[in-house]
Amino acid sequence: MVRVMNNENVSIIKMYGEILTDKEYITNPAIARDEEINKMILALITPDKSALLVGKPGIGKTALVEGLAYRIKKDEVPPILRGWKIIKINVPALLGKIIVNGVEVSKIQLLLSELDNVEKTILFIDEVHLLVSKNNLVDVDFANMLKPYLDRGRILMIGATTSEEYEEYILRDRAFVRRFIKIDVAESQGEDVVKILMGTTPKFEKLMGIKLNYSDFFKEKIFTWLVKYTSEYKRIYEVQSRYPDICLTIISSAFSYAVFEGAPSVTMKHIYLAMKNTGAIYEDSKEKAIAEFKEIFRDVLLKEGIDPDKI
After folding, report:
1. pLDDT per position as a tens digit, 36-59
2. Which residues neighbour 217 within 8 Å (Cβ) at sequence distance 6 or greater?
3. Is the pTM of this model over 0.85?
4. Is residue 177 a contact partner of residue 132, using CB atoms and an 8 Å limit?
5. What average pLDDT does this structure show over 268-290?
6. In whole angstroms, what is the distance from residue 196 CA to residue 33 CA?
7. DSSP for 123-161, written as a single string
């Protein structure tokens, strides 16, 4: 249990929150998601309502909220949201108590006290279903206690949950449902996933300090093939996330292989290794895909000193 000395110095937001509008974004975190972000903005500026993002795991719900934070930083939001900040808080981090001046105090109660002095703030609560789940450890009705702060208009809220947990928990609480405008977040597909990969690669390059030194035309060819390689029925069920996350994981692994061996740039060999060693694709699908990879990119592999028939 965390021990602190003075109640005045306790900030649950600083201890357990992340201010998304203070982050430095190398690239847009929510490429090809303008429609969902616009729906989220409309929900937030609707009186007495909050935004609820619902979709399968790994499809980019958090990235959508980061995309809104990115827009706020760039002053690309309606005037009513300019200057607002977004604070991400995970409900599990709020469970339990901390010791303040020798007394056990609920983290949630401290957060609510802190919100009395907060203005122009959007709370992003991931796993929001835990606020209404009967099997969680939340010992107060946080959802109901938060309502007065939302009603004042000084604080807005975005919740995120999976489709399954929305149906199992949230739909049972009609009062809770009425506070939200539901935004269905679908899995990105095809060309949109390629756009996301193209737009996110500079982020990997900056973070890893190494380049994917191919033309945009050739990168698009690689990514288009990768999207095909990782389509839904080739994935091992629930082992890894969906589009775009599964593709982003493979690309980031390619960067890791290059950095590991001290290579001057990411090459087709590193992309091959990342694909060959992923645990998210069925082995038979992987074998067919890798055989196709060797044929499609044979000329480039040979140019880079790699014999496709020996890898």
Report:
1. 999 999 999 998 889 999 999 889
2. none
3. yes
4. no
5. 95
6. 10
7. EEEETGGGGT-TTS---S-HHHHHHHHHHTTSEEEEEEE
